[in-house]
Amino acid sequence: MQKLVIILIAFITSIISAQSNYEIGMQKAFELWGSNNPIEASNMFERIANAEPDNWLPAYYAAQVNIVNSFSLKDEKLLTAQLKNAQNLINDATAISKNNPEILVLQALLYTAWVAYDGATYGMTMSPKVEAIYAQAEQIAPENPRVVYCKAEWGIGGAKYFGQDTKPFCKDLERSLELFANFKPESPFHPNWGKERVLMLLESCKE
Amino acid sequence: MKSFLLSFCLIISNLLFSQSQISGKVVDEKGVSITGANVYLQGTYDGSTTNENGEFSFRTNEIGTQTLIVSYVSYETYTMVSQITLMKDLTVKLREDVNTLDAVVLSAGTFQAGDNSKVNVLKPLDVVTTASALGDFVGALQTLPGTTTVAEDGRLFVRGGEAEETQIFIDGIRVFTPYTPTTNNSPTRGRYSPFLFDGITFSTGGYSAEYGQALSSVLLLNTINEPDQDKTDIGIMSLGASLGNTQKWSNSSLSANASYINLAPYNEIFPSRNNWIKPYETFSGEAVYRNKFNSGLLKLYTAFDATNFELTQEDINLPEGVHFKLNNNNLYFNGSYQGDLNNTWDVFAGLSYTLGNNDLKITDMLINDRETAVHAKLKFKKRFNNRLKLNFGTEYLALHFEEKFSDLNPGTEIYGYNDNITAAFVEADIFLSKEIAFKPGLRLEYSELFKTVDLAPRLSIAYKTSKTSQLSLAYGNFYQNPNSNILKFTQDLRPQNTLHYILNYQYNADRKIFRTEVYYKEYKHLVKYDTEFAQFDSNFNSNGFGFAKGIDFFWRDSNSIKNIDYWISYSILDTKRDYNNYPYEAQPNFANTHNISLVGKYWINDWRSQLGFSYTFASGRTYTNPNTTGFLNEKTKPYNSLSVNWAYLISPQKILYASVNNVLGFKNINGYQYANSPNADGFFDRRTLQPAADQFFFVGFFWTISEDKKSNQLDKL
User: Fold this and answer.
1) Which of A84, A188, B397, B415 sees the fewest Cβ atoms within 10 Å?
2) What is the pLDDT of residues B15-49, one digit of tens each?
């Protein structure tokens, strides 16, 4: 009987202490991404998105992995395929959570990937879209650090292209740093990235 | 008892945790393993990514019947519904997605411009940054092979065809009067401002069964679905001014655009060969309203323009010249709805209305032309799967033309006719694989005017010969009713007909495109008459015929030289026809043998400027010299023109733009006009037909006011 009790206790505790599948999955996916396995990470996020049809986060991250990855691509076929996939994932996330500033930022980054790939071809058509999205995101969430910093980084890119002063955008970057300090994500898995990038960008502001 | 309980518990926990192994291998159609494919059970967390050998393996607690999903970028997603226990040592074969960038494209005869197509010969900006084009999309298309330079006309002449043989469509709906009126020695322009369009397809032959009443070519313009933001555009030009405004709401948007052109100040500074009494003046306005619904998009487009001018032009037979006065009003409306009926069915419905009114005074003749036209189309698209799509639909074209003619003789003559056409079409898009695609189509047309029924089959085939190249073939049968110059005098004819045979080779890699096309075109049932011009007492018949054959070459390289983008087009054309007043088969005067275009663009970052040039060469065109025997027996000297332009971004929202057409001042000759009767020496005198002006200068300042302070009108220039 003692053995039975032990087994039962062990059985029950194992169930109670166990994290939810969602948490395990998300952690695993972030680990994969962190250890430079973007394909496996994005696959994992996609699987979680598939199992959690009411949660926008896994689709968001799956899209983000694809977009971030595409900035280094030089093969147009691969880039097109990957960004098409990312766009589908963004559409999925948007269907779950509308007017979400985090997803809007991601959409702007997707268009930016096209401009970064071939400014001459896509600059004129994509730039107004990016501008419009940041304007919309800023209206919804003026205090979101990613909205402020991504918009500023885009502004710096444009100003450099046109040979204009980038200083006004550095002020926005500094403001985003304050916002980062006060930003509380809704859950451990909600977006909370970008601070390191701001610090890096601010370095070049000092030059 | 203890041991029983223990084993019972173990069995239970075993049952709870009983896991099955799912394993297998993912390969492509050729059996090559796919690495990185996502394999999982639908609705669960259980899944894996294939390794470098394409193998996957994972454990699951699920039991019974489950759905296994295998997905990979650029491949069709694979679904398998089965017992978990059977999902062992699977071999999953993924089919290539034919909707990817490297799939074969049905390209024979077709040029695409815009973001939305796989092989772009022109980029969206090219339409408006090509030096010779002066912001006119028709001008930009004239740098593509297959077109002929007819400098004094400016319309699209394609592969030995007349300008009327090219039809223009906005959002799939016909435009009946696409060109602005002009004097007979300066080129016309497209009526519609290029910045409302984001996709242009120019087909020089072998086009889809959806389009009819075009013997040679179709030009498909698609208006922008959704503008990006609210903005106001202001343009001040050496020729006039323009003002545009876009308002955007959550599901709808409205863009309006107005422009005013007056050539009086320009003519003061740069006198032309025309003796102006009232210089060219035009006012035009356009508006597009778009409304997005849950599963569809409604677009309403309307345009109005009014043009007038009056002048006296030289004439060899009239020492006092020809007095010419024109007043033209044109109204165009186009409404369309495109939407999904469900996952696999799409519907498109569109309607256009055109009202064109022309008042002409030529010496003592007063002519009033009035054209009203309606085009209605209903089209369905059924998607069976990624590889098989079916398009079918029906359309109705109704054209009413009336002309009032009066001269010194008393009374007014009235000519007119109704040309109504009903058509139905069906077409399938079939992809056998990423390498082979077919597009068979059939079009049936009934002409109320001639009481004829014609069946027009179309077919195109494309085959991918390597990763970067492909071969395409196109065949088509095309019908078109004669134009108003003929039909106003007689309706006892039949539809004109062409047959197209096209073979196309295309290479596309690293932002370099090469394409070449060989074609043969056969004309039948062209209109003939027995007088010098078509007139009320001519005898007409449909016995005209002709042919056109040739080779087109196109090369574009946007990659090899930094900041330089250039393209070269070369067309060689051999064509003859026996139609109109021709005594026998001859090369018409709008079709020359060699056409070359060279267009280059250079972006200078430090100057924030784009410099562009465009060079056109066209071999001589035929004319009839009555001092010798024969018809269209002599040729003019070749045509040459070099145009340059400069766009300077003062700030992201302010642009200064300047261009000069024919900067080297070539004295081009369009043809000759001979005297009706010989002079005292028995010789026919002639007058050289020259352009109104050898050169053309343009300066403009464009300013965009928008919230983001970024967008500008570069895409408009």
Assistant:
1) A188
2) 555 688 999 999 998 999 999 999 999 988 899 99
Residues in chain A: 207
Question: Does B271 contact A at CB distance below 8 Å?
Answer: no
Q: Taking chain B, what is the end-to-end CA distance rounded to the nearest angstrom? A: 92
**Nearest CA-CA distance, residue B51 and chain A, Å:** 10
Asked if the model's pLDDT at residue A51 lies above 50, the reply is: yes
- Cβ pairs bridging A and B (under 8 Å): 104
Residues B357, B427: one domain?
A: yes
How many domains are there within chain B? 2
Which residue among B38, B74, B603 places its CB closest to the CB of A43?
Answer: B38
Specify the amino acid at residue B399.
Answer: L
Its domain, for residue B449, covers 110-716
Residue that the structure tokens 């009987």 belong to: A1
pTM: 0.85
Is A125 in the B-facing interface, judged by CB distances under 8 Å? yes
Q: What ipTM, to 2 d.p.?
A: 0.84
Partners of residue A50 in chain B, C-beta under 8 Å = 40, 42-43, 69
Please, are residues B701 and B654 in contact by the beta-carbon 8 Å criterion? yes
CATH 3.15.10 fits A1-98, yes or no: no
Nearest-CA distance B652 → chain A (Å)? 7
In a shared domain, residues B47 and B168 = no
Per 3-state DSSP, chain B is made up of helix, strand and coil in percentages (nearest 5) of 5, 55, 35
* Interface with B, mutate which of A1, A3, A50 (most B CBs under 10 A): A50
CATH 1.25.40 residue window(s) in chain A: 1-98
Cβ–Cβ under 8 Å, residues B66 and B42: yes
Q: Is residue B654 part of a domain?
A: yes
**A92 touches B: beta carbon within 8 Å:** no
Domain match, B162 and B79 both: no
Residues pairing with B594 in the sheet: B572
